[in-house]
Amino acid sequence: MEPFDISSYKPVPVKYQLRNAILGCIRDGSDPLREIAGRGEAKADLLRALLSGANPFLISREGTGKTRLAKSIAKLLPPVPSIKGCPYHDDPFLPKKWLCPRCSEAEDPLNEFGIELIQGVDRFSRIQGNEYTNYAKILGIKDIEAIREGVSLTDPRSFTGTGVFHGNRGIVFVDELPSIPTNVQVLFHPILEEGIVILDEYNLRRPVDIILIATGNPEGFAHVNRVPRPLLDRLEMIHIGMPGEEVERSIIMEERFKLKSDYFTNDGEGTGSLSLKPSVAFNRSGIVVPWWVIDLIAKTLNYTRRCKNFESGASIRGGIKALDHAISGAEMRGAGVVTLADACKGLKLALRGRTTVIPDLTGFDEDEEVIFKRIDRVIEDLVRFALKKIAEGAFSRLAIDPEQVRGVAIAGRWRKALPKKVEGLGKGIGEADVESDGWIYAFMEFMANIAVLKELVPENEISNKFFVPRVFGDE
């Protein structure tokens, strides 16, 4: 990275900075939002809005990656100079009247406090919308310490900025905007229209330079306050849908829990810094996840959003955690290969709180243990349905005699090339040793399920040897 040349710097509004960054990516042939997989039309609309200097309003279900999307936009912003230590990232070359009270009081703030470069991700401020979101969370609060020292309640020095001010010269991310009371939402009007925060109590009009990115669930998904029309007129509404199954599969694989060797680090000086070197105990890279396990997680996740037995389906995060839990299941067994049984247990754990099963199936029993068991059985039933689709596809692509499948499932016999052929049908995680005991067992379990779900062998001949997901009504 080239050293920052302060002599050639000129203040540039954040919307212009972002335009320049996006156009630079386009000129280089790279995707400005490459961290977000799929959703091509939505990403295109978002880029149009940002290039036009507009403020996006992202509409989607929970767990579609809205926060990640907003942060990826913040990462596009270049570093900018700021008066060192300023909580609002004040530009040292702007007029004093535009600076915060702390910086404006200095004779020469640049010489007194110095200068520092602030990265785009450090100018990202998140405001969580809910019924309790108020003036204090959006704009600021009284500085009790300043008041104790004798500063007047109406003096700007007794005010400490929060949400919007922390995102000055960057991104202000308002998550679940419609959940904020309507009389509080109006605080955003002058910010978006004039680029100022009006603080009547302090007789202060403070300029702010932000891009506001708001989110909300589609109307009808939740009982929330409506967004006032004047505010909605200042936002560009963009629908962010769930990714396709293949894209979601790749997201699940990429976003799973991984050890970060620099997780425990201390950027400060001194001998008290923490360090944690990776060891076998933390390393999950040796665990192999067969392709059919990943397919099962992705397909089950997708079906939760379409199945009539669920009032609400799972988020992308549900699939990521299901894979994490499946891998943990293998670790708990001391095994190196994840099985279908691990996947089903991982899906149950991940989806219980991320889906809503219809009351007709959970019942109205007051015993929470009974309800949990019924939810797990509904999830397992869906796992079976998803696995049946995968089994049908694999059987078709293998193009083998049904007798071979029965031979694996019942007698544990197969032609030498079959495990490698099955392994080559898809992409899993890790380097598969198709001759290892762990992989052979996972292979046999999969073939046994193909045999049962294709009705090549009776289920009762298999279920005592291998895991086969049950139908909801079975006891």
Unreliable sequence segments = 266-276
Helix content class: 40-55%
Q: Which CATH first-tier class of the largest domain would you pick? A: Alpha Beta
Q: Which percent band covers the strand fraction? A: 5-15%
Radius of gyration over all CA atoms, rounded: 28 Å
Strand order of the largest sheet: 4-7-10-1-11
CATH architecture label of the largest domain: 3-Layer(aba) Sandwich
**On the 0-100 scale, what is the average pLDDT?**
86
How many individual helices? 20
Description:
With 475 residues, the protein is of the alpha/beta class. The chain has two domains: 6-241, P-loop containing nucleotide triphosphate hydrolases (Rossmann fold, 3-Layer(aba) Sandwich); 291-461, no CATH class. It has 20 helices and 13 strands. The strands form five sheets. It has a five-stranded parallel β-sheet. Strand 8 (196-199) and strand 9 (204-207) form a beta hairpin. The chain is elongated, with a radius of gyration of 28 Å. Residues 266-276 have low confidence and may be disordered.
